[in-house]
């Protein structure tokens, strides 16, 4: 009896999904187990009218990474959710909630850090006490919580604490959390707190900014080397315009010298800094900058103890059309190579772009040019709030995306260092066009026909795949995976998986991949 009800349930889900418009199906949505250069959905909640926003990510540099975000799926207010992945993009478990507060208060703006063992700590803004405080939660490598949520700030007033960021010592598991503190309504501060690997506090709360400049201070970001030395950077309005300032701390919490200004002294606002550092202490700070009349992405490189490696700031984006580029994220591997990603409006309301750089002590060495991250089939949709992290040769990008039509979801892409979406326009093997027809009959039982057409240079074969997925995004059957010459093709699916087992009733998706592009359609199996 339970099996019958289960089949009826999945049929009902399939009918509901089948009624959704094609706008809700993306070419990367099904590739959770597939090539890591495809977009995939991180937030599994598909409730219409809810947001998943503000992603952040971290990695153990070797085998896995974690993505965290703010999620409205409870129906009341935002909670913080997380998902673990291996480096091929396969999920390790399912989405899980980080905050233990089950009331109607909001938990937003999460950040996350991970050590060499895969243990990680998540930090966020939390309103469970009636105003915004900073809370955190420790996790083991498998995603099991260690102890409970704990409060980071020590403010006993009704002032607010916002915009937390966290960094973790790769080898020891100790960590530092920084945030914007508004307990003094007239003089905001950047504060930080150190913790050992057991989650116990070390010393007193650190005051980071050495001048009190009123309420115009925001957006702290932090990075650490393998010795435990760390740098915090932030927006600072101590002069006429917003500038990017930074402070270097030794592992014992003492600081080196005074706050220093990172951005060139120009008459323009510099906002939303981010920072990445490798184990040896080299680091890069990036921000968005209005010195050219619009927002562009700039950056500066440093060696240990905050010495500039380049004579001046360098511009990252190559857009000369006056569009805005803003809110960058930066990551660095142990070799000192680094990647900067950002929101870019040069083609639409917002896409995700990136630029890679090879490490060189003598000169700046960009790898290639700016490139778009998300699937080009979805450039008309909103992609924003990018966060990026990398291992020695893999890069994980994550962002908020509205392509599924349910407001915003969290998407991600994992790419090799050498991957770029930029293609040579003279590549004659790229298909000029392809067409994927609707299967027939549809609905079907037990077989259906799938027809597709590939158009290109007649003498060139093109790698073509046709795969079937279930509603969970799991591959069920590979129908085609080979080189195909341009032409028209038809194949029959017999309703069985790769092992010859009949599949259950419900909604399925079939995806045609030709070269680097793909298209997906829905079909319904009724038994």
Description of the molecule:
- The structure is a single chain.
- With 527 residues, the protein is mainly β.
- 3% of the residues lie in helices and 49% in strands.
- The two termini are 17 Å apart.
Helix amount, in percent? under 10%
CATH class of the domain at 433-525, named: Mainly Beta
Number of strands: 36
Residue fraction in strands: over 45%
Radius of gyration: 24 Å
Summed up, what is this model?
The protein is mainly β and 527 residues long. The chain is 3% helix and 49% strand.
What attributes characterize this protein structure?
single chain, 527 residues, mainly beta, 5-stranded antiparallel sheet, 4-stranded antiparallel sheet, 1 helix
Question: How is the topology of this model organized?
Answer:
Blueprint: H1 2-18, E1 40-41, E2 52-59, E3 64-71, E4 79-86, E5 91-97, E6 107-114, E7 120-126, E8 133-139, E9 145-151, E10 161-168, E11 175-181, E12 189-195, E13 201-207, E14 217-224, E15 230-236, E16 243-249, E17 255-261, E18 270-277, E19 283-289, E20 296-303, E21 307-308, E22 314-315, E23 325-332, E24 338-344, E25 351-358, E26 365-372, E27 383-390, E28 394-401, E29 409-416, E30 433-436, E31 448-455, E32 462-469, E33 475-484, E34 487-493, E35 506-514, E36 517-525
């Amino acid at each position: 009896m339970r099996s019958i009800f289960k089949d009826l349930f999945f049929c009902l889900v399939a009918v509901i999904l089948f009624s959704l418009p094609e706008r809700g199906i993306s070419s990367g949505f099904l590739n959770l187990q597939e090539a890591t250069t495809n977009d995939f959905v991180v937030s599994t909640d598909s409730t219409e009218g809810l947001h998943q926003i503000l992603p952040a990510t971290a990695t153990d540099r070797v085998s896995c990474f974690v993505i965290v975000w703010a999620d409205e799926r409870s129906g009341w207010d935002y909670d913080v959710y997380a998902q673990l992945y291996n480096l091929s993009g396969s999920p390790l478990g399912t989405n899980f909630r980080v905050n233990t507060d089950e009331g109607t208060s909001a938990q937003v703006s999460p950040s996350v850090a991970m050590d060499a063992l895969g243990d990680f700590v998540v930090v966020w803004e939390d309103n469970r006490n009636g105003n915004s405080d900073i809370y955190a939660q420790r996790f083991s490598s498998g995603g099991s919580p260690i102890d409970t949520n704990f409060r980071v700030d020590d403010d006993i007033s009704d002032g607010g604490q916002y915009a937390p960021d966290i960094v973790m010592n790769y080898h020891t598991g100790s960590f530092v959390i920084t945030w914007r503190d508004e307990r003094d309504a007239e003089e905001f501060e950047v504060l930080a707190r150190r913790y050992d690997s057991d989650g116990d506090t070390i010393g007193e709360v650190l005051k980071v900014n050495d001048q009190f400049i009123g309420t115009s201070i925001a957006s702290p970001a932090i990075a650490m080397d393998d010795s435990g030395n760390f740098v915090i950077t932030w927006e600072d309005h101590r002069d006429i315009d917003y500038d990017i300032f930074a402070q270097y701390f030794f592992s014992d919490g003492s600081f080196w010298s005074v706050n220093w200004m990172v951005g060139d002294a120009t008459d323009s606002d510099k906002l939303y800094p981010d920072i990445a550092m490798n184990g040896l202490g080299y680091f890069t700070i990036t921000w968005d900058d209005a010195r050219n009349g619009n927002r562009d992405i700039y950056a500066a490189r440093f060696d240990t103890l905050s010495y500039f490696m380049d004579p001046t700031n360098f511009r990252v984006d190559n857009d000369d059309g006056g569009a805005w580029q803003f809110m960058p994220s930066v990551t660095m591997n142990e070799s000192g190579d680094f990647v900067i990603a950002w929101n870019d409006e040069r083609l639409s309301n917002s896409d995700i772009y990136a630029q890679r750089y090879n490490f060189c002590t003598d000169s700046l060495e960009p790898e290639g040019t700016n490139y778009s991250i998300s699937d080009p089939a979805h450039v008309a949709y909103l992609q924003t709030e990018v966060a990026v992290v990398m291992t020695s040769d893999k890069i994980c990008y994550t962002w908020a995306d509205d392509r599924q039509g349910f407001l915003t979801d969290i998407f991600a892409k994992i790419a090799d260092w050498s991957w770029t979406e930029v293609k040579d326009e003279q590549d004659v093997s790229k298909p000029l066009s392809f067409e994927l027809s609707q299967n027939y009959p549809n609905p079907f039982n037990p077989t259906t026909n799938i027809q597709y057409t590939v158009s290109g240079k007649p003498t060139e074969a093109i790698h073509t795949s046709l795969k079937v997925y279930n509603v969970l995004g799991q591959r069920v059957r590979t129908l085609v995976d080979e080189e195909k010459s341009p032409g028209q093709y038809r194949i029959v699916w017999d309703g069985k998986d790769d092992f010859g087992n009949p599949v259950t009733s419900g909604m399925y998706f079939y995806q045609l991949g030709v070269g680097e592009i793909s298209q997906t359609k829905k079909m319904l199996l009724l038994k």
